[in-house]
C-alpha cells in the first residue's frame, strides 16, 4: 500500500509536468480584478493529480473490505463525472445551476451505496435525517474547497493535511490501515502537485482539481465521522470550513451574489495587505499541523480531549484569521 502511495505521487508529479505545455495552449488563466495573481498561468493541473490519484485508489480497493466496495466504486465514478464537467467549466464557464445539480446527484449516488448501518451521528438521528445532513455538509465541503483555491499552494497544503490527518486517525485510533492508505495516496498526490503550484505557481489546480479533491477529501473526513470521531473530522479542515463559511455569510449579508468570484476570503485579504502567497500558505500549513494534532489527541486513550480539541482548534483558527484580516503590518 505504501508503494502504491509513492507511485501515485510520482505519477501525479510527472504527468502534471507533461501536461503543462498543452495546458498553456488550452487553459490559460488571465488575471482580472478578482484574481490574486498577476501573471497569466495555465489552469487544469488537477488533471495530473487525478491521473495519479484515481488509479491509486482503485488499486487500494484490493485490500478494502467488500462492504465498502459499492460505495468506493460509486465514489470513483462520481469523481470522474465531476472532473469531466469541471474541466469543461475551466475551459468555458458553465451555469452554476448545472454544476450544482451534478454535484448533488454525484453525492446522492455515493450515499445511496452506503450501508444503512453506517451513520455519521451514530444512530442519534433517523437514517433519512442522517443522510440528508451528511449530504448537505458534503456538498458544502466540495464547494468551499473550490472557493478556497485562490492562491498558490493553499489547496495542496489543505489536501495534504486532510490526507495525513485522516490516515493518522484511521491507523492509530481505529487500526484501519486500509483506510489510512487512501489518505496517504491523497496526501502524496497533493504534495506532488505542490512542486508545480508553490509560489510563483507554474500551474493552477483549476476546477478539474479542486472539485474532485473536495469530493474525495470529504469522503475521507466522512470515514472518520462514521467511525465515531465526528469532532476529529470537523477539526482537521477547520481553517477551510471557517474561512469559507464566515465569508459566505458576510457576503450574503452584504447582498452580494455569493456564487460569483470575489476577493473577500481572509487568506485573500492577507495577500492584499502585504503577505506573500508563500507566507499565507505556510501559516495555514502550521495551523493545519496543530489541527491534526488536536484531532488525533481528541481520540487518544489517555488524553481523550474529545470536543475540547475542536474548541481549541476554533480559537487557533480565529487567531490566524485575525492576523490575516489585519495584514502584515500588524503581524
TrEMBL record:
Mg(2+) binds at residues 146, 207. Its cofactor is Mg(2+). It comes from the Bacteria. GO terms for molecular function: metal ion binding; phosphotransferase activity, for other substituted phosphate groups. It is a multi-pass membrane protein. GO terms for cellular component: plasma membrane. It holds the Pfam family Glycos_transf_4. The chain crosses the membrane at residues 41-61, 68-87, 119-141, 153-172, 179-198, 218-242, 280-299, 305-325. It is found in: Cell membrane. GO terms for biological process: cell wall macromolecule biosynthetic process; cell wall organization; lipopolysaccharide biosynthetic process. Its main location: membrane. Keywords: Cell membrane, Magnesium, Membrane, Metal-binding, Transferase, Transmembrane, Transmembrane helix. PANTHER family: PHOSPHO-N-ACETYLMURAMOYL-PENTAPEPTIDE-TRANSFERASE, UNDECAPRENYL-PHOSPHATE ALPHA-N-ACETYLGLUCOSAMINYL 1-PHOSPHATE TRANSFERASE. This is Glycosyl transferase.
Amino acid at each position: 500500500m505504501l508503494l502504491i502511495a509513492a507511485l501515485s505521487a510520482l505519477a501525479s508529479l510527472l504527468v502534471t509536468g507533461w501536461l503543462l505545455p498543452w495546458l498553456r495552449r488550452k487553459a490559460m488563466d488571465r488575471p482580472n480584478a478578482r484574481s490574486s495573481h498577476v501573471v497569466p498561468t495555465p489552469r487544469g493541473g488537477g488533471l495530473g493529480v487525478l491521473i495519479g490519484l484515481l488509479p491509486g485508489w482503485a488499486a487500494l480497493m484490493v485490500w478494502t473490505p467488500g462492504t465498502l466496495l459499492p460505495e468506493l466504486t460509486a465514489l470513483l465514478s462520481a469523481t470522474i463525472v465531476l472532473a469531466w464537467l469541471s474541466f469543461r467549466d475551466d475551459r468555458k464557464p458553465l451555469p452554476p445551476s448545472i454544476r450544482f445539480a451534478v454535484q448533488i446527484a454525484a453525492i446522492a449516488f455515493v450515499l445511496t451505496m452506503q450501508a444503512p448501518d453506517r451513520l455519521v451521528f451514530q444512530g442519534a438521528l433517523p437514517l433519512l435525517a442522517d443522510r440528508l445532513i451528511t449530504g448537505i455538509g458534503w456538498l458544502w465541503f466540495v464547494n468551499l474547497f473550490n472557493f478556497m483555491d485562490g492562491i498558490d499552494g493553499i489547496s495542496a497544503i489543505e489536501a495534504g493535511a486532510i490526507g495525513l490527518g485522516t490516515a493518522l486517525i484511521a491507523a492509530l485510533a481505529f487500526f484501519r490501515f486500509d483506510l489510512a492508505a487512501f489518505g496517504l495516496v491523497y496526501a502524496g498526490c497533493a504534495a506532488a502537485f505542490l512542486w508545480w503550484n508553490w509560489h510563483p505557481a507554474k500551474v493552477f489546480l483549476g476546477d478539474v482539481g479542486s472539485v474532485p479533491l473536495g469530493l474525495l477529501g470529504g469522503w475521507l473526513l466522512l470515514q472518520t465521522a462514521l467511525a465515531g470521531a465526528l469532532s476529529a473530522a470537523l477539526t482537521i479542515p477547520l481553517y477551510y470550513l471557517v474561512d469559507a463559511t464566515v465569508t459566505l455569510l458576510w457576503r450574503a449579508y452584504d447582498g452580494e451574489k455569493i456564487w460569483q468570484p470575489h476577493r473577500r476570503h481572509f487568506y485573500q485579504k492577507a495577500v492584499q495587505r502585504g503577505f506573500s502567497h508563500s507566507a499565507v500558505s505556510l501559516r495555514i500549513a502550521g495551523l493545519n499541523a496543530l489541527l491534526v494534532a488536536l484531532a488525533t489527541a481528541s481520540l487518544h486513550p489517555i488524553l481523550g480531549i474529545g470536543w475540547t480539541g475542536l474548541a481549541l482548534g476554533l480559537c487557533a483558527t480565529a487567531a490566524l484569521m485575525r492576523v490575516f484580516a489585519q495584514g502584515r503590518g500588524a503581524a
